[in-house]
Amino acid sequence: MLANLKMWLHKEPPGRIIVVSFAIIILTGSLLLCLPACTRPGKSTSYLDALFTAGSATCVTGLTLFDTYRHWTTLGQVFILMLIQVGGLGLVTFTTGFTLLMHKKLGLRNMELAVENTNGDSGDIGSLVRMILKFTFSCEGIGALILMIRFLPQMGAHGIWVSVFLAVSAYCNAGFDILGSVMENGNLIPYAADPLVCLTIDMLIIVGGLGFVVIADICHSKLQPTLHGQHRHSLGFHSRIVLSMAILLIILGTIVFMVLEYKNTLASLPNFGAKLNAALLQSVSPRTAGFASVDLSKEYDFTKIFTVLLMFIGAAPGSTGGGIKTTTMLVLLCCVHSVLRGQPEAIFHHRRIDKFTVYRALAICGVGMLVVLIVTGIITSTTPNVNGVDALYEATSAFGTVGLTAGVTPRLSPISRIAIILTMYIGRVGPVSLGLAVSIKHGHIHTDSVLPEGKIIVG
Hints:
Layout: H1 2-11, H2 14-33, H3 47-58, H4 68-71, H5 74-89, H6 91-101, H7 108-118, H8 125-155, H9 158-171, H10 195-208, H11 212-227, H12 237-261, H13 272-284, H14 301-313, H15 326-340, E1 347-348, E2 351-352, H16 355-382, H17 388-399, H18 414-429, H19 431-439
Antiparallel strand pairs: 1-2
């Protein structure tokens, strides 16, 4: 059996192994969460409920059927947090990283898997994976320490666990919380006016959503030269795009949410600063963390539709977040701009974007929209009393691995729950990656044949 497993790992393409590894983690997590010791006395957990929770945690989504604190015991919460951590970084990043930290040689096969999992460069993948693990645990540790300033005085020793759980969940863009002792299913609503909690969560979400390649570029180009008194280098083209898109979407989201919800869901907050604090979280969270500072079910429909757009775009490639990714959206916008100007190729900042990247972006967006529309239809047709906007909100949240909900998740029918589980899985591994993993045979794509050109009139 072990020999067959090694043979399969050796011959299969890296993308397929990563796709399968996520499925194995979800199934293993669902079995663990079915243990009676994971559910509080008086509560019950069916296998479908456990599978839904394990899928949501592994895919770092945050959609929950129950209040995580009130339904799951400490053991269940530990299992959920482990799934979040492994799912956020990727199983291959973990195994490869610890192999490198133990100073063992990284084989060619493991290197291919690590490159696929992190979107890194095979020439320096060892350094990248080491940096990912060290940087991740450092950020989560610092975030937990800051959150303890608030939760330790309020909750005593339990505040330590709450702080650690929230820090890991925020950095991995998961959106799970264990604040049910403060307000059932309240998430961060009780702390909407608390800048220490919200800004810490904001920063963890943003850093986790930048992507490991961008973090490495910032460290190597800016931080390390500064610490050693050396000349700082300019960031790479990809890093500049990711940072620019992140800043633009955060500012735009905050302004739009403030304008639309100022006299609605933000009205109960005491002052402008508190409203801005909550609006900033609601701008950052849809990309793709799932923390809520207001009652999302009471938002205006237009606000929900705008949030759907943010959730669909998501975070950066190679990050803990989901969505079609910010760079994909930029490529599509460049494509539209080039066509409108009569240019034969997509161009951004005097750089030509190769056609394969454009095709991949179109495929990701097209498949993503198709999945979201199908799941929206399933929810509206199988779950009673759910309107179209809320169903679209739920489906996009699942695909973008966000975790925001307008109160629909606990009411989902069994068929809708299965559809959401599959959607979270597709959103986490990526629609194109999943398609390639299913279709490619042993990693070979035949492109050597020359085919006649087909003339098609469009537009």
